Protein backbone atom coordinates (compact mmCIF):
# COMPACT_ATOMS: atom_id res chain seq x y z
CA UNK A 1 0.00 0.00 0.00
CA UNK A 2 2.82 2.40 0.88
CA UNK A 3 4.52 1.62 -2.44
CA UNK A 4 1.32 2.49 -4.35
CA UNK A 5 0.99 5.76 -2.49
CA UNK A 6 4.62 6.59 -3.21
CA UNK A 7 4.13 5.92 -6.92
CA UNK A 8 0.99 8.04 -6.94
CA UNK A 9 2.85 10.88 -5.24
CA UNK A 10 5.67 10.62 -7.78
CA UNK A 11 3.17 10.81 -10.65
CA UNK A 12 1.60 13.94 -9.16
CA UNK A 13 5.01 15.58 -8.72
CA UNK A 14 6.01 14.72 -12.29
CA UNK A 15 2.71 16.14 -13.56
CA UNK A 16 3.26 19.47 -11.79
CA UNK A 17 6.88 19.57 -12.94
CA UNK A 18 5.70 19.15 -16.53
CA UNK A 19 3.16 21.95 -16.06
CA UNK A 20 5.84 24.28 -14.67
CA UNK A 21 8.14 23.48 -17.60
CA UNK A 22 5.32 24.17 -20.07
CA UNK A 23 4.56 27.49 -18.39
CA UNK A 24 8.22 28.47 -18.63
CA UNK A 25 8.38 27.53 -22.31
CA UNK A 26 5.24 29.49 -23.09
CA UNK A 27 6.57 32.49 -21.18
CA UNK A 28 9.84 32.37 -23.11
CA UNK A 29 7.90 32.42 -26.38
CA UNK A 30 5.45 35.09 -25.25
CA UNK A 31 5.00 37.38 -28.27
CA UNK A 32 3.89 40.20 -25.95
CA UNK A 33 7.38 40.53 -24.47
CA UNK A 34 8.98 43.75 -25.66
CA UNK A 35 12.73 44.28 -26.00
CA UNK A 36 13.89 47.36 -24.09
CA UNK A 37 17.33 48.93 -24.47
CA UNK A 38 19.17 51.46 -22.31
CA UNK A 39 22.72 52.76 -22.67
CA UNK A 40 25.06 55.32 -21.19
CA UNK A 41 28.52 55.89 -19.75
CA UNK A 42 30.07 54.61 -16.54
CA UNK A 43 33.50 54.43 -14.91
CA UNK A 44 34.46 57.68 -16.62
CA UNK A 45 34.20 57.04 -20.35
CA UNK A 46 33.22 53.36 -20.57
CA UNK A 47 30.01 52.72 -22.50
CA UNK A 48 27.36 50.32 -21.27
CA UNK A 49 24.45 48.75 -23.13
CA UNK A 50 21.62 46.77 -21.55
CA UNK A 51 18.81 44.94 -23.36
CA UNK A 52 15.96 43.15 -21.62
CA UNK A 53 12.46 41.83 -22.34
CA UNK A 54 9.41 42.94 -20.38
CA UNK A 55 5.64 42.97 -20.84
CA UNK A 56 5.39 46.43 -22.34
CA UNK A 57 7.97 49.22 -22.35
CA UNK A 58 9.85 49.48 -19.06
CA UNK A 59 12.76 51.88 -18.65
CA UNK A 60 15.25 51.00 -15.91
CA UNK A 61 17.92 53.52 -16.95
CA UNK A 62 17.56 55.65 -13.81
CA UNK A 63 17.94 52.59 -11.61
CA UNK A 64 20.87 51.21 -13.62
CA UNK A 65 22.69 54.55 -13.58
CA UNK A 66 22.12 54.78 -9.84
CA UNK A 67 23.55 51.29 -9.25
CA UNK A 68 26.61 52.05 -11.39
CA UNK A 69 27.19 55.38 -9.66
CA UNK A 70 27.06 53.69 -6.27
CA UNK A 71 29.36 50.95 -7.56
CA UNK A 72 31.91 53.53 -8.73
CA UNK A 73 31.78 55.33 -5.39
CA UNK A 74 33.02 52.10 -3.87
CA UNK A 75 35.54 50.67 -6.35
CA UNK A 76 36.75 53.39 -8.75
CA UNK A 77 40.32 54.58 -8.24
CA UNK A 78 39.46 57.54 -10.48
CA UNK A 79 37.14 59.02 -7.82
CA UNK A 80 39.25 60.58 -5.00
CA UNK A 81 36.55 60.06 -2.35
CA UNK A 82 35.63 56.48 -3.32
CA UNK A 83 36.06 53.68 -0.79
CA UNK A 84 39.03 52.17 -2.62
CA UNK A 85 40.72 55.59 -2.94
CA UNK A 86 40.34 56.17 0.79
CA UNK A 87 41.75 52.71 1.45
CA UNK A 88 44.78 53.46 -0.73
CA UNK A 89 45.35 56.70 1.15
CA UNK A 90 44.96 55.35 4.69
CA UNK A 91 45.68 51.61 4.51
CA UNK A 92 42.43 50.58 6.18
CA UNK A 93 38.72 50.76 5.44
CA UNK A 94 35.46 49.78 7.07
CA UNK A 95 33.19 48.75 4.19
CA UNK A 96 30.15 50.93 3.57
CA UNK A 97 28.95 49.27 0.37
CA UNK A 98 28.35 45.51 0.04
CA UNK A 99 30.11 45.27 -3.36
CA UNK A 100 33.66 45.57 -2.03
CA UNK A 101 33.93 42.30 -0.09
CA UNK A 102 32.72 39.94 -2.89
CA UNK A 103 35.30 41.40 -5.28
CA UNK A 104 38.05 40.72 -2.74
CA UNK A 105 36.87 37.13 -2.29
CA UNK A 106 36.86 36.50 -6.05
CA UNK A 107 40.26 38.17 -6.39
CA UNK A 108 41.72 35.94 -3.71
CA UNK A 109 40.31 32.83 -5.42
CA UNK A 110 41.80 33.73 -8.82
CA UNK A 111 45.07 34.90 -7.26
CA UNK A 112 45.56 31.49 -5.65
CA UNK A 113 44.41 29.53 -8.72
CA UNK A 114 46.85 31.42 -10.98
CA UNK A 115 49.73 31.31 -8.49
CA UNK A 116 49.97 35.06 -8.33
CA UNK A 117 49.51 35.90 -12.02
CA UNK A 118 46.36 37.76 -11.04
CA UNK A 119 47.07 40.27 -8.29
CA UNK A 120 45.01 43.44 -7.68
CA UNK A 121 47.76 44.88 -5.47
CA UNK A 122 49.65 45.56 -8.69
CA UNK A 123 48.54 49.19 -8.40
CA UNK A 124 52.01 50.71 -7.79
CA UNK A 125 53.30 49.10 -10.99
CA UNK A 126 50.17 50.06 -12.96
CA UNK A 127 50.68 53.68 -11.90
CA UNK A 128 54.41 53.61 -12.66
CA UNK A 129 53.78 52.32 -16.17
CA UNK A 130 51.28 55.13 -16.74
CA UNK A 131 48.02 53.15 -16.73
CA UNK A 132 46.69 54.56 -13.45
CA UNK A 133 44.43 57.54 -12.72
CA UNK A 134 47.08 60.22 -13.30
CA UNK A 135 48.37 58.69 -16.60
CA UNK A 136 51.89 59.87 -15.69
CA UNK A 137 54.49 57.39 -16.88
CA UNK A 138 58.05 57.06 -15.62
CA UNK A 139 61.22 55.71 -17.15
CA UNK A 140 61.32 52.25 -15.62
CA UNK A 141 64.49 50.37 -14.82
CA UNK A 142 65.04 47.20 -12.82
CA UNK A 143 65.91 49.15 -9.68
CA UNK A 144 62.59 51.03 -9.75
CA UNK A 145 60.66 47.84 -10.53
CA UNK A 146 62.30 46.04 -7.60
CA UNK A 147 61.52 48.93 -5.26
CA UNK A 148 57.84 48.77 -6.26
CA UNK A 149 57.55 44.98 -5.98
CA UNK A 150 57.89 45.21 -2.19
CA UNK A 151 54.41 46.80 -2.20
CA UNK A 152 52.86 44.07 -4.38
CA UNK A 153 51.38 40.84 -3.03
CA UNK A 154 47.74 40.00 -2.35
CA UNK A 155 48.73 37.83 0.62
CA UNK A 156 49.92 40.99 2.40
CA UNK A 157 46.40 42.40 2.78
CA UNK A 158 43.90 41.28 5.39
CA UNK A 159 40.13 41.48 5.08
CA UNK A 160 36.88 40.15 6.46
CA UNK A 161 33.23 40.98 5.60
CA UNK A 162 33.46 44.37 7.30
CA UNK A 163 37.10 45.55 7.21
CA UNK A 164 40.24 45.57 5.05
CA UNK A 165 43.77 46.59 6.07
CA UNK A 166 47.05 46.62 4.17
CA UNK A 167 50.62 47.85 4.75
CA UNK A 168 51.47 51.46 4.07
CA UNK A 169 52.59 52.05 0.49
CA UNK A 170 50.38 49.39 -1.06
CA UNK A 171 47.84 50.42 -3.67
CA UNK A 172 44.83 48.27 -4.50
CA UNK A 173 43.55 48.39 -8.10
CA UNK A 174 40.50 46.23 -8.82
CA UNK A 175 39.98 47.41 -12.40
CA UNK A 176 40.78 43.95 -13.80
CA UNK A 177 37.75 42.48 -12.05
CA UNK A 178 35.43 45.36 -11.11
CA UNK A 179 34.03 45.93 -14.61
CA UNK A 180 32.96 42.30 -14.79
CA UNK A 181 31.37 42.52 -11.37
CA UNK A 182 29.47 45.67 -12.41
CA UNK A 183 27.96 43.57 -15.22
CA UNK A 184 26.88 41.00 -12.62
CA UNK A 185 25.36 43.68 -10.38
CA UNK A 186 23.16 44.95 -13.23
CA UNK A 187 22.25 41.42 -14.35
CA UNK A 188 21.25 40.46 -10.80
CA UNK A 189 19.17 43.63 -10.49
CA UNK A 190 17.24 42.73 -13.65
CA UNK A 191 16.69 39.21 -12.34
CA UNK A 192 15.31 40.70 -9.12
CA UNK A 193 12.67 42.36 -11.33
CA UNK A 194 11.67 38.91 -12.63
CA UNK A 195 13.24 39.59 -16.02
CA UNK A 196 14.15 36.31 -17.72
CA UNK A 197 15.78 37.55 -20.94
CA UNK A 198 18.60 40.09 -20.91
CA UNK A 199 22.05 41.07 -22.17
CA UNK A 200 24.27 43.34 -20.09
CA UNK A 201 27.45 44.76 -21.62
CA UNK A 202 29.95 47.16 -20.05
CA UNK A 203 33.06 48.02 -22.03
CA UNK A 204 32.98 44.74 -23.93
CA UNK A 205 32.35 42.47 -20.92
CA UNK A 206 29.01 40.69 -21.30
CA UNK A 207 26.54 38.55 -19.40
CA UNK A 208 23.40 37.06 -20.92
CA UNK A 209 20.43 35.03 -19.85
CA UNK A 210 17.33 33.93 -21.74
CA UNK A 211 17.05 34.80 -25.44
CA UNK A 212 17.34 37.80 -27.77
CA UNK A 213 14.54 39.55 -29.67
CA UNK A 214 14.39 36.65 -32.16
CA UNK A 215 14.00 34.08 -29.41
CA UNK A 216 17.54 32.79 -30.06
CA UNK A 217 20.75 32.71 -28.08
CA UNK A 218 22.42 36.11 -27.76
CA UNK A 219 25.13 36.62 -30.41
CA UNK A 220 28.25 38.36 -29.14
CA UNK A 221 31.15 39.42 -31.36
CA UNK A 222 34.77 38.84 -30.36
CA UNK A 223 37.18 41.42 -31.72
CA UNK A 224 40.17 40.55 -33.88
CA UNK A 225 43.17 41.50 -31.68
CA UNK A 226 45.23 42.58 -34.71
CA UNK A 227 42.70 45.13 -35.97
CA UNK A 228 42.55 48.71 -34.70
CA UNK A 229 39.55 48.80 -32.31
CA UNK A 230 38.70 52.31 -33.54
CA UNK A 231 37.90 51.00 -37.00
CA UNK A 232 34.94 48.72 -37.60
CA UNK A 233 35.87 45.35 -39.01
CA UNK A 234 34.04 42.03 -38.97
CA UNK A 235 34.66 40.28 -35.65
CA UNK A 236 37.23 37.51 -35.37
CA UNK A 237 34.45 35.27 -34.10
CA UNK A 238 30.85 35.29 -32.92
CA UNK A 239 29.62 33.27 -29.97
CA UNK A 240 26.09 32.13 -29.24
CA UNK A 241 26.06 33.00 -25.56
CA UNK A 242 23.46 31.22 -23.46
CA UNK A 243 23.21 31.99 -19.75
CA UNK A 244 26.91 32.77 -19.49
CA UNK A 245 29.36 35.62 -19.24
CA UNK A 246 32.27 36.56 -21.47
CA UNK A 247 35.20 38.87 -20.79
CA UNK A 248 38.08 39.56 -23.17
CA UNK A 249 41.53 40.88 -22.42
CA UNK A 250 44.24 41.79 -24.92
CA UNK A 251 47.31 43.98 -25.27
CA UNK A 252 45.68 45.80 -28.19
CA UNK A 253 43.20 47.49 -25.85
CA UNK A 254 45.57 49.65 -23.80
CA UNK A 255 49.13 50.64 -24.75
CA UNK A 256 51.33 53.63 -25.46
CA UNK A 257 54.70 54.27 -27.09
CA UNK A 258 57.79 56.16 -25.91
CA UNK A 259 60.37 56.27 -28.67
CA UNK A 260 60.67 52.81 -30.18
CA UNK A 261 59.29 51.05 -27.09
CA UNK A 262 55.67 49.92 -26.71
CA UNK A 263 54.27 49.73 -23.18
CA UNK A 264 51.26 47.43 -22.84
CA UNK A 265 48.92 47.28 -19.87
CA UNK A 266 49.39 43.55 -19.18
CA UNK A 267 52.01 43.48 -16.44
CA UNK A 268 53.18 40.36 -14.64
CA UNK A 269 52.74 41.11 -10.91
CA UNK A 270 55.27 38.42 -10.02
CA UNK A 271 58.13 40.09 -11.90
CA UNK A 272 56.91 43.66 -12.36
CA UNK A 273 57.62 43.45 -16.08
CA UNK A 274 55.29 43.60 -19.03
CA UNK A 275 54.10 40.19 -20.11
CA UNK A 276 55.94 38.89 -23.18
CA UNK A 277 53.80 35.83 -23.79
CA UNK A 278 52.67 35.14 -27.36
CA UNK A 279 49.00 35.30 -26.43
CA UNK A 280 47.17 38.13 -28.25
CA UNK A 281 43.81 37.97 -26.55
CA UNK A 282 41.91 35.78 -24.10
CA UNK A 283 38.13 35.51 -24.12
CA UNK A 284 36.93 33.65 -21.04
CA UNK A 285 33.44 32.24 -20.47
CA UNK A 286 32.20 31.72 -16.92
CA UNK A 287 28.95 31.58 -14.91
CA UNK A 288 29.51 35.19 -13.83
CA UNK A 289 31.35 38.08 -15.45
CA UNK A 290 33.55 38.83 -12.43
CA UNK A 291 35.35 35.48 -12.74
CA UNK A 292 35.54 35.78 -16.53
CA UNK A 293 37.09 39.24 -16.22
CA UNK A 294 39.72 38.19 -13.69
CA UNK A 295 40.77 35.04 -15.54
CA UNK A 296 40.95 36.86 -18.89
CA UNK A 297 43.53 39.22 -17.37
CA UNK A 298 45.43 36.37 -15.71
CA UNK A 299 45.61 34.35 -18.93
CA UNK A 300 47.30 37.25 -20.72
CA UNK A 301 50.04 37.04 -18.09
CA UNK A 302 50.23 33.24 -18.02
CA UNK A 303 50.27 32.49 -21.74
CA UNK A 304 48.63 29.59 -23.56
CA UNK A 305 50.08 26.52 -21.82
CA UNK A 306 49.49 27.60 -18.23
CA UNK A 307 46.06 28.98 -19.12
CA UNK A 308 45.00 25.69 -20.71
CA UNK A 309 46.08 23.83 -17.56
CA UNK A 310 43.74 26.01 -15.48
CA UNK A 311 40.90 25.64 -18.00
CA UNK A 312 41.21 21.86 -17.94
CA UNK A 313 41.14 21.82 -14.13
CA UNK A 314 38.11 24.12 -13.67
CA UNK A 315 34.87 22.98 -15.29
CA UNK A 316 33.26 26.40 -14.75
CA UNK A 317 35.59 28.00 -17.29
CA UNK A 318 35.83 27.89 -21.09
CA UNK A 319 37.88 30.08 -23.40
CA UNK A 320 38.89 31.25 -26.85
CA UNK A 321 42.62 32.01 -26.84
CA UNK A 322 44.19 33.82 -29.80
CA UNK A 323 47.98 33.66 -29.95
CA UNK A 324 50.86 34.37 -32.29
CA UNK A 325 51.95 31.19 -34.02
CA UNK A 326 55.01 30.65 -36.18
CA UNK A 327 53.13 31.60 -39.34
CA UNK A 328 50.64 34.09 -37.94
CA UNK A 329 47.69 34.21 -35.53
CA UNK A 330 46.27 30.89 -34.33
CA UNK A 331 43.52 30.06 -31.85
CA UNK A 332 42.33 27.46 -29.37
CA UNK A 333 38.70 26.91 -28.36
CA UNK A 334 38.01 24.74 -25.33
CA UNK A 335 35.68 21.80 -25.91
CA UNK A 336 32.71 23.25 -24.06
CA UNK A 337 32.44 26.23 -26.44
CA UNK A 338 33.35 24.71 -29.82
CA UNK A 339 29.73 24.30 -30.87
CA UNK A 340 28.85 27.87 -29.86
CA UNK A 341 31.67 29.80 -31.54
CA UNK A 342 31.79 30.72 -35.23
CA UNK A 343 35.27 31.77 -36.44
CA UNK A 344 35.66 34.35 -39.24
CA UNK A 345 32.03 35.35 -39.03
CA UNK A 346 31.27 37.46 -42.10
CA UNK A 347 28.11 39.25 -41.04
CA UNK A 348 27.47 41.96 -38.45
CA UNK A 349 26.22 40.15 -35.31
Task: Describe, in plain words, how this protein is organized in 3D.
There is one protein chain. This protein has helices spanning 2-28, 61-75, 83-90, 100-113, 123-128, 142-149, 175-192, 289-302, 304-313, and strands at 33-42, 46-55, 92-94, 158-159, 163-165, 198-202, 205-209, 218-222, 237-241, 245-250, 255-258, 261-264, 279-286, 318-325, 328-333, 341-343. The chain contains nine helices and 16 strands. The chain has 349 residues and is α+β, with helices and mostly antiparallel strands. The chain has two domains: 1-30; 33-343, ApbE-like domains (T-fold). The chain is globular. It starts with a helix and ends in a 6-residue tail after the last strand. 40% of the residues are buried.
How are helices and strands ordered from N to C?
A: HEEHHEHHHEEHEEEEEEEEHHEEE
β-sheet strand percentage: 15-25%
Which strand order does the major sheet show? 1-2-6-7-10-13-14-15
CATH architectural group of the largest domain: Roll
Please give the CATH class of the largest domain. Alpha Beta
Uncertain segments are: 21-28
CATH topology of the largest domain: T-fold
> What gross morphology would you assign?
globular
Overall radius of gyration: 22 Å
State the distance separating the first and last CA atoms. Answer: 60 Å
Reported for the largest beta sheet, the result is: 8 strands, antiparallel
Question: Mean pLDDT score, rounded?
Answer: 86
How many domain units?
Answer: 2
Fraction in helix:
25-40%
For the record, what is the CATH homologous superfamily label of the largest domain?
A: ApbE-like domains
Structural class: alpha+beta
Q: If helices are DSSP runs of H or I spanning 4 or more residues, what is the number of helices?
A: 9
The number of strands is: 16
